[in-house]
Design brief:
Elements (H helix, E strand, L loop, with lengths): L1 H9 L3 H18 L2 H18 L4 H14 L3 H18 L22 H14 L4 H6 L14 H4 L4 H15 L3 H16 L1
Helix pairs in contact: 1-2, 2-3, 4-5, 5-6, 5-9, 6-9, 9-10
Length: 193
């Protein structure tokens, strides 16, 4: 089914791809495959955004709730990392560059650029809260979030390597160099033990 989604997206048919993704998601839920379900959710969100750009805002709220409710440490890290990347990419959608007030957390469409950046920073750091556990898990559990032939070779297979690279790249992009370095130190500490 993932190949069908890819073909539909290449043909410029995001609505049809979204329908197939919902089918993948339903099957993944039935099989208890959280990685596939998450991948389908994120891909479907991308399809919805292609059709209606503002549809991303409710998906951000859903993904945030998903991170907060995740019982599995690895799933929480992957969700937090994905949420951080989305928020970072959306920061230029902020309604203003200077925020005199904080928009409510569920009013993503009213956030300032600073709110997007602060939330992205927060979730990158959340993705790195359990480095020992992430080092024990394989990134392949989260295929197709992890693209075969690119991410898997680059990230040597373990989830910590992927999460730290995403966090460092994201934090540096947000101007948070010291926090990026702290994330690298966390990972190095795990790998040295």
């Amino acid at each position: 089914l993932w190949q069908k989604v890819e073909i539909l997206l290449q043909e410029g048919r995001p609505k049809s791809a979204g329908e197939v993704l919902e089918n993948i998601r339903s099957q993944a839920v039935g099989a208890g495959d959280r990685g596939q379900e998450l991948a389908a959710f994120l891909a479907a969100s991308g399809c919805r955004q292609t059709l209606t750009p503002d549809s991303l805002f409710p998906d951000i709220i859903l993904l945030r709730r998903r991170v907060e409710g995740a019982k599995d440490v690895a799933e929480r890290a992957v969700c937090a990392s994905s949420l951080a990347r989305i928020l970072s990419a959306c920061r230029w959608r902020g309604v203003s560059t200077v925020s005199d007030w904080q928009a409510p957390i569920d009013s993503v469409h009213l956030w300032s650029r600073e709110q997007f950046e602060e939330e992205a920073r927060h979730w990158y750091l959340v993705s790195m809260t359990a480095p020992d556990t992430l080092a024990e898990r394989q990134a392949s559990e989260y295929f197709p979030i992890i693209e075969p032939g690119t991410d898997r070779e680059l990230y040597a297979g373990d989830l910590l390597n992927l999460m730290v690279r995403r966090a460092v790249e994201g934090l540096v992009g947000l101007g948070q160099r010291d926090e990026a370095i702290a994330c690298l130190h966390q990972a190095l500490k795990v790998y040295r033990n």
